[in-house]
Design a protein that fits this description.
With 519 residues, this protein is mostly helical. It contains 25 helices and 5 strands. The chain has a 5-stranded mixed sheet. Strand 4 and strand 5 form a beta hairpin. The longest helix has 31 residues. The radius of gyration is 24 Å and the shape is globular.
Length: 519
């Protein structure tokens, strides 16, 4: 157990590096957290909105954070991510020990045991330390990962070993997944579909669907609103792929010209390989997967005989589900289903377990684990420096401090505000800090009906930007105040959106923000 403790300590401090960095999603998450200081669990009501309806975002992570003092919300939310990951590592170690020592009964003289090797590879897997806000945000991404792991371990035991009592915790875990993470919900349902196909058995899919249906009719959970919100989200993304900021992922032109960018435009090259081209992101984020694919391609007949072992086949099925989801969502028609590489987060443990199993099965020296851990640590630190580059620029004096407090102080003195923001995202940040019960905001993704995001199709010309006709918003929503974040005007211009403020009355300006009245 001393090895497990050391791995937990290593995993904790590696993750601590990432949570010390800011996330662009913090403002939105704080808005969700703040709501649950005023309403009960499961409620998705939005009070200070110009758009009638609710925001059916998963409830549980924000509700838990709201139980902490407000001044500690950000720290609590991010530390909880580390706790969930550390709990996953404990679970991985215990399950690996049972499999390697009790079921498969491998005997080895290696310095580190198979369960330690599996847990160490999982603790340092770069896919769990991405440049996106997995660790830095306060949503359900990490807890969704943990709950999926718990679910498919419990389901595997119930399904493979005919233990029907274990379907009960699976039902509870399924509900918790829905309440915790949109992406976790997607992975859970897709993996259940793949399991049913691989096993030619309806139970995995039927059980998942039944859990969703039962959860939707249980009063007080708010699952019906979550499902409606998710469906509307799919519908909106699917219809407006060219306007929601996902159309530039896996762009064929960028892939072809990537070597040229390395020479002529290093900044674009770095941005592409870290955030846009998913096969490259997957390759360096999961080096163990690359080796497994190479092994299977080189000795496919020999290795395929391993699928006769039922636990190995189950692990292969779970791993294949993530890989299939990654492949499908890397294609342009399915970009609306989310960042493709995120699906691989859910299979990192299964892939590492398969890797260590094959090492022992083929008699390969275990020092490869040591070198893989070193490589993974190097990749993690490269990711980390990409994440903190903005903070480094600020520390060097290259960057702008956002004078947000001055904006709030000004708005606090105003009356009867109906606010529209450019970009729309900062409305959540302002609403969280503004102590003004009569102020109303134009929020995106508020709905009460199926296809409830139609208003955004009418009002917005891109994911974060409203149409440049301010009189339209005055007439439709009686909006009287426009808040503009200057730094985003350049982004808007890059997307061909030109805002003309000459007809408006400017009532506030500082280095970062402008406020206009719309009359």
């Amino acid at each position: 157990m001393i090895y497990l403790l050391l791995i937990i300590i290593l995993g904790f401090f590696l993750r601590l590096l990432f949570i010390l960095s800011e996330s662009s999603d913090d403002d939105t998450h704080l808005w969700y957290v703040n709501r649950y200081t005023k309403m009960k669990f499961g409620s998705h009501r939005v009070d200070n909105t110009l758009i009638e309806g609710s925001k059916g975002y998963p409830t549980l992570p924000h509700y838990i954070i709201s139980r902490f003092p407000k001044k500690h919300w950000v720290l609590a939310g991010k530390l909880l991510n580390i706790v969930y990951d550390c709990l996953s590592l404990v679970l991985i170690y215990l399950l690996s020990y049972i499999l390697f020592q009790k079921i498969w009964e491998f005997e080895t003289d290696d310095v580190i045991s198979p369960e330690v090797a599996t847990t160490l590879l999982s603790a340092t897997s770069p896919i769990l330390f991405p440049v996106t806000a997995r660790l830095r945000a306060m949503g359900g991404r990490v807890v969704g990962n943990f709950l999926n792991l718990l679910y498919f371990i419990s389901f595997g035991y119930a399904f493979l070993f005919s233990q029907p009592l274990f379907y009960l915790p699976c039902f509870v875990l399924g509900l918790l997944i829905i309440l915790s993470s949109q992406f976790g919900l997607q992975n859970w349902l897709f993996t259940s579909v793949v399991l049913s196909i691989f096993y030619l058995h309806p139970i995995p899919l039927i059980f998942a669907i039944a859990t969703v249906i039962i959860g939707a009719i249980i009063p007080g959970l708010g699952i019906k609103q979550i499902l409606r919100h998710k469906y509307n989200h799919y519908l909106w993304y699917f219809r407006l792929t060219e306007r929601v900021g996902i159309e530039d992922r896996n762009n064929l032109k960028d892939i072809v010209y990537l070597p040229a960018y390395l020479v002529k435009d290093l900044r674009k090259f770095v941005n592409l390989i870290f955030t846009k081209i998913t096969p490259i992101i997957a390759a360096y984020s999961m080096p163990v997967l690359v080796i497994l694919i190479f092994w299977f391609a080189k000795s496919s007949q020999k290795l395929m005989t391993l699928v006769d072992e039922k636990i190995i086949f189950y692990l292969l099925s779970l791993s294949s589900a993530s890989c299939l989801a990654f492949a499908i969502t890397s294609l342009k028609p399915f970009l609306f289903l989310g960042e493709a590489e995120r699906y691989l987060e859910y299979s990192a443990f299964y892939i590492n377990l398969l890797f260590v199993y094959l090492l022992l099965e083929q008699g390969i020296e275990s020092n490869i684990v040591f070198w893989l851990v070193v490589i993974q640590l190097c990749i993690i630190f490269v990711n980390y420096f990409f994440v903190i580059k903005r903070e480094l620029l600020k520390a060097l004096g290259i960057g702008t401090a956002f004078p947000f407090k001055a904006l709030i102080d000004f708005l606090q003195k105003q009356e009867d505000l109906k606010i529209l923001c450019i970009p729309t995202k900062i409305s959540f940040k302002i609403a969280t800090e503004l102590d003004h019960p009569n102020t109303l905001f134009y929020y995106n993704f508020v709905t009460k009906d199926i296809d409830g995001f139609q208003y955004m199709k009418d009002d917005m010309v891109a994911y974060r930007f409203v149409r440049p006709d301010f009189n339209y918003f005055r007439q439709k929503y009686a909006i009287n105040t426009l808040v503009v974040q200057k730094s985003d005007l350049t982004i808007a211009q890059g997307q061909g959106i030109d805002y003309n403020f000459e007809a408006l009355n400017k009532i506030f300006e500082n280095d970062e923000y402008m406020v206009y009245t719309i009359a």
